[in-house]
């Protein structure tokens, strides 16, 4: 490290080499089981799991499904503590749902507290608990299945398994990559405004001016990207071949079966124990 | 370099233009017109012309990406290998200037396979082609799953080259492929292209301001004229021949048009050397500058500075910056030059240590650290010119753009516009005063971004790559401008890998030396 030596012709500073700053390649999922699934299955499984729960609003089915999911994820390689940590936005959502319904949900049974439109009662507390559990039982597996999903692999699956239009899917995929560049643009726009003396004062007005700059930049970037893609034959009439194979394997079918059994069992137990409660009926 | 796998050779193809021209549907005038030329298979052509001559348009046309009839009007004929360019998909491979916009997928192998997929090549062949293409551009050790985000600039451009080579085109089109790279990256890409054309015999057409880079590879130079230029009958081909022929007869014309003609002297703008009639003076801006700064007192200091975004790129940095001096932050792409520049400009928080301004310039006593200031307090003290001028624009007209600084400093409307008008005059931008900043050309945008920063009369001007991707004419203007700013007594700190710029200005170079952890301990 050379100290400052004024007026010399050449100075130098030591920096970390760029290739030492790389983060490790991320696995497709923290769970060995989910990582083996086709990306398309990672959408289908949570969908299967959530559908039956829409037909009931009780504490039993939600808590059974949530418990089973936690245990299965643990077997699948993700510790429940990690699950909780990685799904924290879900818990905020569930918490605010709980508060709102507890205060404004349909009144029934003992009333604990009443203040204007706010009434907390046995009935509203029960629905609040059920809603909280249902959100957890649906959102937690959904988030865990989709975390670290590789967009390229997903695109391959959408085209080869669900037969969506490749032009649409790969065009969208390229667009997603552009967001990283736009994030950098947004940051540079913000810094430049500070440097130009426009960084104080009304944050909302500043956002609008910055957003316009971003719009112009994004159009330019998109145009360049489109040219580069077209130069490589994208969007022609030739039928596209596939460099990577996206297939469903036995493990995907196993996952589907499990994803159907879990909620059916949970709802079945709720019915058998007399806890089944149609959401349409209210409290 | 010589032991790479044998690349299966696509047959080189030729290009034929007959009175060809193109007009963008949004423009009144033709971008280029009356182009007549024949490029024979296997020729290696350097395509020149002043900015606006339609070089990139012609390259895009040969690559078949100019678009359909609703995007513009074409006239005459342009064929590749005897076929109309638009039906010759895959015959021409186009590499562009900006690596960011050419890399489409996340994994290097997938990116290289993208074009083959679009051409409908069977799967087994795709991967063979991908591996061959990566090998031939010198990326033989790159894993197919390597993330494209973690490549250096030179590596990314070589990947872009491999991406099009996997199509096995007979014609390689390179549109300023090295303009965004550091010297190391330029060499990497040059060597890769050399290896490609020598082992495949493909036809090559390259557009580049820095003629030196490609001179050893080309056997023909074609100069395009600007459509509507007086004296050359509405564009077309101005000159065509071997490099020696063209440069001996056209050297001056080319230099005027902005090309970096080989063997030209770099102007000398070191302190006290600038030719008097040539330098730019800024009375308006200088009137607010204090001439009383002690030349032996640093205006800006770093003490034990760690800089970075999150993780430290450099630690324990001590630097002093003196008035009336130009400093050049130099080093490979990705070394952290821009990050240090932003930290010095008071835009990024130092991770540790201090950046301090001379007490005589501080907004309040003991308020020496630029990052702790309000945005307005940066004005008149430290200005930052960004690499992309468009990141900086905040007004609807060029005149308002320049007036932003003075207005924020509390000047009256009249005063602010007086400064703006004077600044536009100096920068030769007056005729665009009511125009929108986004509609200017590249060189004009850059001048405007400097003008709007200078209007706030900073004592320290920090510039990120001020000469990036410019032709010789706009480059010379920028050098003159920076010398003029220095002669006002300002400190100029620029991020650059432009050696001629540093030499021309006699700047003090600050080299970024990437040193791995182990080496540092040793």
From TrEMBL, chain A:
It holds the Pfam family CbiQ. One of its GO terms (cellular component) is plasma membrane. It is a multi-pass membrane protein. InterPro entries: ABC/ECF_trnsptr_transmembrane, ECF_transporter_component. Keywords: Cell membrane, Membrane, Transmembrane, Transmembrane helix. Its main location: membrane. CDD domains: EcfT (cd16914). This is Cobalt ABC transporter permease.
From TrEMBL, chain B:
Residues 15-259, 300-522 form the ABC transporter domain. It comes from Bifidobacterium goeldii. This is ABC transporter ATP-binding protein. GO terms for cellular component: ATP-binding cassette (ABC) transporter complex. Gene3D superfamilies: P-loop containing nucleotide triphosphate hydrolases (3.40.50.300). The keyword Nucleotide-binding applies. The keyword Protein biosynthesis does not apply. Belongs to the ABC transporter superfamily.
């Amino acid at each position: 490290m050379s100290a400052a030596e004024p007026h010399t012709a050449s100075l130098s500073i030591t920096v970390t080499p760029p290739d030492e700053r790389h983060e490790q390649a991320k696995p497709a999922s923290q769970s060995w089981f989910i990582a083996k699934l086709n990306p398309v299955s990672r959408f289908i499984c949570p969908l299967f799991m959530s559908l039956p729960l829409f037909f009931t609003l009780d504490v039993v089915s939600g808590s059974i499904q949530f418990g089973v999911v936690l245990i299965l994820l643990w077997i699948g390689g993700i510790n429940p503590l990690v699950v909780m940590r990685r799904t924290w936005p879900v818990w905020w959502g569930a918490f605010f749902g709980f508060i709102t319904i507890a205060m404004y949900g349909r009144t029934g049974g003992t009333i604990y507290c009443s203040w204007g439109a706010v009434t907390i009662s046995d009935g509203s507390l029960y629905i609040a608990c059920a809603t909280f559990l249902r959100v957890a039982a649906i959102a937690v597996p959904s988030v865990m299945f989709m975390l670290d999903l590789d967009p390229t692999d997903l695109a391959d699956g959408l085209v080869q398994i669900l037969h969506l239009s490749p032009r649409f899917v790969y065009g969208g995929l390229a667009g997603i990559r552009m967001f990283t560049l736009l994030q950098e643009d947004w940051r540079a726009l913000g810094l430049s405004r500070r440097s130009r003396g426009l960084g104080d004062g009304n944050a909302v007005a500043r956002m609008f001016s910055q957003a316009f700059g971003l719009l112009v930049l994004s159009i330019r970037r998109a145009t360049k990207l489109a040219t580069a893609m077209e130069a490589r034959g994208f969007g022609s009439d030739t039928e596209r071949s596939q460099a990577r194979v996206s297939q469903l394997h036995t493990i995907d079918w196993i996952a589907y079966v499990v994803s159907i059994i879990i909620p059916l069992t949970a709802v079945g137990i709720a019915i058998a124990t007399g806890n089944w409660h149609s959401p349409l009926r209210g409290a | 370099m010589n032991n790479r796998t044998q690349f299966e050779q696509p047959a080189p193809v030729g290009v034929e233009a007959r009175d060809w021209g193109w007009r963008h549907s949004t423009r009144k005038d033709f971008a280029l017109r009356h182009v007549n030329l024949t490029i024979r298979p296997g020729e290696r052509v350097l395509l020149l012309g002043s900015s606006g001559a339609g070089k990139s348009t012609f390259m895009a046309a040969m690559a078949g990406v100019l678009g359909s009839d609703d995007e513009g009007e074409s006239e005459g004929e342009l064929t590749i290998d005897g076929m109309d360019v638009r039906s010759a998909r895959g015959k021409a491979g186009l590499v562009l200037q900006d690596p960011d916009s050419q890399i489409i997928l996340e994994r290097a192998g997938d990116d290289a396979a993208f074009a083959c997929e679009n051409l409908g090549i069977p799967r087994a062949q795709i991967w063979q082609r991908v591996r061959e293409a990566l090998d031939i551009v010198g990326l033989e050790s790159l894993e197919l799953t390597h993330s494209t985000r973690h490549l250096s600039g030179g590596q990314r451009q070589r990947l872009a080259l491999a991406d099009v080579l996997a199509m096995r085109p007979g014609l390689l089109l390179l549109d300023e492929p090295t303009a965004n790279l550091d010297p190391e990256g330029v060499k990497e890409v040059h060597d890769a292209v050399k290896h490609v054309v020598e082992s495949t015999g493909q036809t090559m057409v390259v557009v580049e301001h820095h003629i030196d880079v490609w001179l050893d590879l080309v056997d023909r130079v074609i100069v395009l004229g600007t459509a509507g230029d007086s004296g050359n009958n509405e564009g077309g081909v101005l000159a065509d021949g071997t490099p020696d022929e063209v440069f001996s007869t056209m050297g001056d014309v080319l230099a005027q048009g902005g090309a970096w003609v080989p063997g030209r002297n770099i102007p000398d703008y070191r302190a006290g050397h600038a030719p008097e009639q040539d330098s730019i003076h800024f009375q308006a801006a200088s009137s607010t500058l204090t001439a009383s700064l002690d030349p032996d007192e640093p205006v800006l200091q770093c003490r034990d500075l760690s800089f970075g975004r999150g993780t430290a790129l450099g630690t324990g940095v001590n630097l002093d910056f003196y008035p009336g001096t130009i400093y050049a932050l130099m080093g490979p792409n990705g070394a952290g030059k821009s990050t240090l520049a932003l930290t010095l400009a008071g835009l990024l928080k130092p991770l540790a240590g201090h950046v301090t301004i001379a007490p005589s310039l501080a907004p309040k006593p003991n308020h020496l650290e630029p990052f702790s200031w309000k945005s307005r307090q940066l004005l008149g003290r430290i200005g930052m010119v960004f690499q992309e001028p468009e990141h900086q624009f905040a007004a609807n007209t060029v005149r308002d753009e320049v007036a932003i600084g003075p207005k924020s400093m509390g000047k009256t409307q009249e005063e602010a516009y007086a400064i703006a008008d004077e600044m536009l005059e100096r920068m030769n931008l007056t005729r665009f005063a009511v125009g929108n900043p986004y509609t200017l050309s590249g060189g004009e945008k850059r001048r405007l971004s400097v003008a709007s920063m200078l209007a706030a009369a900073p004592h320290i001007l920090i510039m990120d790559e001020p000469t990036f991707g410019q032709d010789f004419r706009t480059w010379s203007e920028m050098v003159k401008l920076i010398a003029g700013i220095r002669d006002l007594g300002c400190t100029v700190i620029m991020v650059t890998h432009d050696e001629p710029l540093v030499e021309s200005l006699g700047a003090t170079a600050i080299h970024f030396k990437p040193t791995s952890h182990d080496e540092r301990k040793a």
